[in-house]
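ESCALATION

Customer reports they have been waiting on this structure for their group meeting. Please prioritize. Original submission:
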Amino acid sequence: NLTCEIPDENWFQKPAPFGSDVGIDPGMKTIMTTSDGVAHSRENITKRYAESIAVFRLEGEDVTEQAFEDFLPEEMTLRQIPSRLKIGDRILQVQVTTVRSGGLVESLLFSIIDATNLEKAERENTRHKVLVRLLREIEAFRNFLDETRSRLELSRKLIRAGEQLKVRSELHTIKGNTAAFDLLDIAALIHNIEDHATIGIESIDLIDKEFELFLQENHEILQISFVGENQDNTLTIDQKNLDDIVVRIRETLSTDEIRTTVNDWVADMRYKQARILIGALPEYGERLASRFEKEVAIQVEGADTRMDPDVMRPIMHSLIHLVRNSIDHGLESPAERRDMGKASKGMITISCETDAEHWVVHFVDDGRGINVGRVVQKALDNGQITPEALADMSYEQKISLIFLSGISTSDNVTDISGRGVGMSAVHQAVQDAGGQLTIQSLEGRGTTIRVSIPRIREPAYRLAS
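Update from on-call: job pushed to the front of the queue and completed.
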C-alpha cells in the first residue's frame, strides 16, 4: 500500500510536474486521500506521483519493501527514502510514516508538499542575511577578496610549475575563509575541486568566475568588484595617534630623528587592526560549533593591535584552519567536557601582540589536545618519516609532524577537515613570511600554537632627506 496525503482535492487541477506516461509497479495498491477523506483514482496517482515514487528505488533495492519487512529499525529504513525531490522546476518535500495494525506495517503514508516557493523564500532570506553580515564586516571582506585574488593568481603559477600540493594548500585556505563569510555555494565548489586528482587552471578560473558573479549580482548593495584592489585608501587618524606623534616630534632633537619618527608613524598609519584581518572568523567559528552540537566561545585579545596587512593578512587568514580543526576534533562535546570536569562550553582564544621586532599571534584552545602517537603513526604510514628517524626525535619534533602535508588525526574527510592540508597551510604561510611556528599540547588539557613574524620596517612613504 502506498497512501499519499495531499493538501486539497483541487491540487489535481494543477499541471503535473512530470509526464503521465509513467506507471506504478504491479501489485501495489495506490490510494490517495485529501484531508477531507476523499479518495482519488489510480490514474491521478500515476499522473502526479509515479515518478516521485520511482525515485525511492535505491540501487535496485526497493526501500519500501524493507519498510514492510520491518526488520531494521523503522527510523533507519525510512531515512533512506529521499525527503526532497526535484521534478522539473518544482521542489517536493516528502515525509513518510508507517501505518501499523497489530504491530505489523500495513501501509506507508507519504505526505508530499510542494515546497518550491518556500525554498525560494528561504534562499532569498539567507541571501539577505549574508549581505547584512558582509556589510557589517565590509573592510574585512575587502581584505579577504584581495587576498583571495592573490591566492588564485598564485595557484595558477603553482599549477604551471607542477606544485599540486601547494595549490591544494592555497585552495583549502580560500575555501575556509569563503565559508567564514557564508559564501557557501562557492565553498562547496572549491571542496568539490579539491577532490580532483589533478587541479587545473580551468578550475581556478571557475572559482574566479563564481566570485565575480556573486559580486556582480550584489554590486548595488556591496559596491565591490573582484577586479582590481578593493582596499579603502582612506587613512583614519584618531586624536590619540595625532597627539602621540606631536609629543614624539617635540621630544626629538635632530632633523634625522624627526624624519625617522615621522616615517615610522606613517608606516603605522598604513597598518590594519588585527580584528579587520581576522574578519568574520569568531562569528563563523561559533556557528560552526553549533553545527557540531558543541558549545564554543571564541575570544580575540589584542584586537586593536596594528599589523602590516601585506605581511600579516596571509597569516591571519590561515587561522581559519586552526579554528575548524579545533572545533571539528579538538574541542569535546558538552557532555564529554562535563565528564572530564571541564566547563561545558569550550574556549578558543586568539591573542595578538607586537613589539619592536615581531608580530606575535597565540592560538589557544582548552580541548582534548593532540594525540601525538596518532600523528606519528600517520607520518610513518605515509612514509614521511622512518622508524630510524623517529627514534632520534624529541617530543617537540614529533608533535610538529602535524604540520606535514597529508597528516590528519581525523579518519574521515569532510567539508571541514580530514584532508591533512590545513595545518600544512598554516606552516607554509608562516614560512613564507619568514616567521616561526611552535606548538604545545597536553592531552585532555588543550593546545597552544605560537606564531612569530618579523616586522619589516619599510614604510611605503618616506620623507625626503
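Sent to customer with the following note: Confidence is low (pLDDT under 50) at residues 1-61, 459-465.
Escalation resolved.
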